[in-house]
C-alpha cells in the first residue's frame, strides 16, 4: 500500500466542510463518508446508498480521542478495554456505548455507535485534516458489491459525490470485522 497522502486533500476538506459526500479508499474497499454532525450530509449519503437510517453508521477516525464526543467512554468496562484498544489502528469496528447526545442519524435504532480507528494513510490524513471522525460506509448501493476503483465509483455515483479522494486501497480482502464491545459478539466478519 502506498503511504502517500491524497493529492486532493484540500479539495476533500472543502467538500466535507460544505456538507458534501466523499468517496475514498480504505483498507479493503472504497468508502463513502461525510460530516457525522451534518444531518443533511448524512441523509444525502443514505439516499445515495439507498440505506435505511435505522441501521446506523460507522465512524472512522485517526485516533480514539476524535470519537469521544460520540462515545460514552465511562460505560466501557475496564476488562474490555485491552481487547478494544489493542485492535486499533486496524480493520476492526467496535460497537461502543453511545452518548445520549449522539444523533440517531448515526446510531439508528441502537444504543451503540460503531467506531473504527484506521491505519489507512488516506483515511488518517482526511481525519487529521478535518479534526474529527468521518461517517464511513462501503461505496455501494445497499445490497450490491462495493466499488473497488475510483473509475468504478465515478460510473456508479457520478455527480452525487462531492469529491473522489485519490489514493490506493489497502491490502485487506474483506470489510472490517464488527464486534460488540460489551458482549464480544462478532456481528460481521470471520473469527
Shape: globular
The total of helices stands at 6
Query: Distance between termini?
Result: 24 Å
Pairing-aware structural class of the strands and helices?
alpha/beta
Report strand %. Answer: 15-25%
* Low-pLDDT regions: none
Largest sheet data: 9 strands, mixed
Spell out the helices and strands N to C. Answer: HEEHEHEHEHEHEEE
Q: What's the alpha carbon Rg, rounded to whole Å?
A: 15 Å
Mean pLDDT: 92
The beta-strand count equals 9
Helix content: 25-40%
Please give the order of strands in the largest beta sheet.
Answer: 7-1-2-6-3-5-4-8-9
Topology:
Elements: H1 9-17, E1 22-25, E2 30-33, H2 39-49, E3 58-61, H3 78-86, E4 92-97, H4 104-107, E5 112-117, H5 121-130, E6 134-138, H6 150-157, E7 163-164, E8 177-180, E9 186-188
Parallel strand pairs: 1-7, 3-5, 4-8
Antiparallel strand pairs: 1-2, 2-6, 3-6, 4-5, 8-9
Could you characterize the architecture of this molecule?
With 191 residues, the protein is α/β, with parallel strands linked by helices. The chain contains six helices and nine strands; from the N terminus they run αββαβαβαβαβαβββ. The chain has helices at residues 9-17, 39-49, 78-86, 104-107, 121-130, 150-157; strands at residues 22-25, 30-33, 58-61, 92-97, 112-117, 134-138, 163-164, 177-180, 186-188. Strands 7-1-2-6-3-5-4-8-9 form a nine-stranded mixed beta sheet. Strand 8 and strand 9 form a beta hairpin. Helix 1 (9-17) crosses helix 5 (121-130). It is globular and about 45 Å long. 42% of the residues are buried. The mean pLDDT is 92.
Amino acid at each position: 500500500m502506498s503511504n502517500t497522502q491524497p493529492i486532493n486533500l484540500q479539495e476533500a476538506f472543502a467538500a466535507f466542510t460544505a456538507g458534501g459526500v466523499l468517496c475514498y479508499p480504505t483498507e479493503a474497499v472504497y468508502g463513502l463518508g461525510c460530516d457525522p454532525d451534518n444531518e443533511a450530509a448524512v441523509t444525502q449519503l443514505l439516499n445515495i446508498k439507498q440505506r435505511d437510517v435505522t441501521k446506523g453508521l460507522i465512524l472512522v477516525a485517526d485516533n480514539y480521542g476524535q470519537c469521544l464526543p460520540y462515545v460514552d467512554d465511562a460505560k466501557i468496562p475496564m476488562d474490555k478495554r485491552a481487547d478494544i484498544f489493542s485492535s486499533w489502528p486496524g480493520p476492526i469496528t467496535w460497537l461502543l456505548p453511545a452518548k445520549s447526545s449522539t444523533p440517531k442519524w448515526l446510531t439508528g435504532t441502537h444504543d451503540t455507535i460503531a467506531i473504527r480507528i484506521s491505519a489507512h494513510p488516506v483515511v488518517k490524513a482526511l481525519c487529521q485534516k478535518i479534526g474529527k471522525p468521518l461517517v464511513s460506509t462501503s461505496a455501494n448501493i445497499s445490497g450490491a458489491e462495493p466499488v473497488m476503483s475510483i473509475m468504478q465509483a465515478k460510473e456508479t455515483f457520478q455527480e452525487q459525490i462531492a469529491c473522489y479522494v485519490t489514493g490506493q486501497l489497502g491490502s485487506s480482502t474483506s470489510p472490517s470485522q464488527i464486534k460488540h464491545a460489551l458482549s464480544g459478539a462478532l456481528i460481521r466478519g470471520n473469527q
